[in-house]
UniProtKB/TrEMBL annotation:
Keywords attached to this entry: NAD, Oxidoreductase
Molecular function GO labels: aldehyde dehydrogenase (NAD+) activity
A Pfam family annotated for this UniProt entry: Aldedh
UniProt family annotation: Belongs to the aldehyde dehydrogenase family.
Subunit structure: Homotetramer.
Record-annotated active site: E260
InterPro entries: Ald_DH/histidinol_DH, Ald_DH_C, Ald_DH_CS_GLU, Ald_DH_N, Aldehyde_DH_dom, ALDH7A1-like
EC number(s) on file: 1.2.1.3
This protein's name: aldehyde dehydrogenase (NAD(+))
UniProt xrefs under Gene3D superfamilies: Aldehyde Dehydrogenase, Chain A, domain 1 (3.40.605.10), Aldehyde Dehydrogenase, Chain A, domain 2 (3.40.309.10)
Entries under PROSITE patterns matching the protein: ALDEHYDE_DEHYDR_GLU (PS00687)
């Protein structure tokens, strides 16, 4: 193990209030993708203890739902304070455990802070409706109540932000949360839980002990959350394959799932596009986070009239961009998370060549020998949208294709099973408005003159089709964590029935 990383990881975790017993002596081996070094050996929870934790969370919910929502918002405000005070440390931990460049590690923690701020305001705005009744002397209202225990299953690529998107809203809505993080990134989860416990201690006795619970373990622990009737809402982020399994199993017990799944995201470059802006946006969208965002740009659909101007410049950026350990250099592209990701990338590039594609880049870069997996991002010019282009490979591969008409481009964009994010580069208002219309992008997110990644918490995040249909973060996404109740109140002295029904029994 690298002495430097070992010492730094320990100092970071303990500085955020984590006991050494939580990250040492366990069975879950955590490696840094930066170097391949072992960072920690984390204890895993048993199935029996996980089941007991669900019971405790359910009991805690019975108490937490009694607390007024603005008061619940105060706890989330305190969590935001803890995150602000520990932004540098937690952001650094994200970089060491996931391999993100430092600004992206810090940016992820900033997302957590932002959603806390959003949720605090929301705690006074959990609005229902007043509805006009057809019956005299009657009032109809709609109100929202906490759903119960919310299970959160998160992925490695945003190891803490996804928890915050869900937890901040769930908590102000009156729910308790149980978190099963990725086995690849438990350290950031342990640190986040420690910061939450600090906030809860400052909040006082009104916060029950099992308000937020962390379950570190394998797939069998996630399966417990999925199967348990006491967990009415399960929010799961990951592959479409995983989401299909989770969604079906939760639905069988009539639970609700919030699914954030695959994204085979496209951008359309029109003849009216500002190509300098497009070049910069495409570079970040396709190569940021080493292509390991669910909103990463994976397909670029370019009008034939600007193709020969844009693509050679883009190939030049791909050839020049710095790949390396972002802790030791100013590299913009860090490592893939592990060997499986590297092998999946190489398999997709092989399939692209066999389908007639011209591959620029994609080769492994020797940064730390065989222990880590750095690659040069790949730009692949494809003759058509076929083969691996129709699939999501969680790696920095950008497939590029030509088009002639905007209708053709929109059809290409929409002709995949995923529907998360999309964008168009155009200065012609007619092109923009068509893209944003019902005839345009079929994705949950549609951007103009920017790439498909980099969503803000103020807007609901999620997508359609095999992306799962879930929404997290802004807008009215809070409703997914609550149950709706319609109330009819008769404040008169007679009993008129709806729809003019008569049922006179005397008396």
């Amino acid at each position: 193990m690298s002495f430097h990383l070992d010492v730094e990881i320990k100092a970071l975790l303990q500085g955020m209030g984590v006991a050494e017993s939580e990250f040492s002596g366990g069975t879950l081996i955590v490696r840094s993708p930066l170097t391949g070094d072992v960072l920690a050996k984390v204890p895993e929870i048993s199935s029996e203890k996980a089941i007991a934790a669900i019971s405790s969370s359910s009991e805690a919910f019975n108490e937490w739902r009694k607390i007024p929502a603005p008061r619940r918002g105060e706890l989330v405000r305190l969590l935001g304070e803890e995150l602000r005070a520990n932004k540098e440390a937690l952001g650094r931990l994200v970089t060491l455990e996931v391999g993100k460049v430092p600004s992206e590690g810090l940016g992820e923690v900033q997302e957590m802070i932002d959603i806390c701020d959003f949720a605090v305001g929301l705690s006074r705005q959990l609005y229902g409706l007043t509805i006009q009744s057809e019956r005299p002397d009657h009032r109809l209202t709609e109100q929202w109540h906490p759903a119960g225990v919310v299970g959160i299953i998160s992925a490695f690529n945003f190891p803490v932000a996804v928890w915050a998107w869900n937890a901040a809203l769930a908590l102000v809505c009156g729910n308790t949360v149980i978190w099963k993080p990725s086995e690849k990134t438990p350290l950031t989860a342990i640190a986040t839980q420690a910061l939450f416990l600090k906030a809860a201690a400052r909040f006082g006795a009104e916060a029950p002990k099992a308000l937020s619970t962390l379950l570190v373990g394998g797939r069998e622990i996630g399966a417990l959350l999925v199967e348990d009737q006491r967990v009415p809402v399960v929010s799961a982020t990951g592959s479409t394959r995983m989401g299909r399994d989770v969604g079906e199993r939760v639905a069988r017990r009539f639970g609700r799932s919030i699914l954030e799944l695959g994204g085979n995201n496209a951008s359309i470059v029109t003849p009216s596009a500002d190509l300098d802006l497009t070049l910069r946006a495409v570079a970040f969208g396709a190569m940021g986070t080493a292509g390991q965002r669910c909103t990463t740009l994976r397909r670029l659909i370019v009008h034939s009239s600007v193709y020969e101007t844009l693509i050679p410049k883009l190939v030049g950026v791909y050839n020049a961009i710095k790949v390396g350990n972002p802790v030791e250099s100013d590299a913009l592209v860090g490592p893939l998370i592990d060997q499986l990701s590297f092998e999946a990338m190489q398999s997709s590039l092989k399939a692209a060549r066999e389908a007639g594609g011209t591959v620029h880049g994609g080769q492994r870069v020797n940064i730390n020998g065989d222990a880590s997996f750095y690659v040069r991002p790949a730009l692949v010019e494809m003759p058509s949208q076929t083969g691996p282009v129709l699939e999501e490979t969680f790696a920095p591969i950008l497939y590029v294709m030509k088009y002639e008409t905007l209708d053709e481009a929109i059809s290409l964009q929409n002709s995949v099973v995923q529907g998360l994010s999309s964008s168009i580069f155009a200065t012609d208002i007619r092109e923009v408005e068509l893209f944003l219309s019902a005839q345009g992008s079929d994705c949950g997110i549609a951007n103009v003159n920017m790439g498909p990644s980099g969503a803000e918490i103020g807007g609901a995040f999620g997508g359609e089709k095999e992306t799962g249909g879930g929404r997290e973060s802004g807008s009215d996404a809070w409703k997914a964590y609550m149950r709706r109740q319609t109330n009819a109140v008769n404040y008169g002295r007679t009993l008129p029935l709806a729809q003019g029904v008569k049922f006179d029994v005397g008396g």
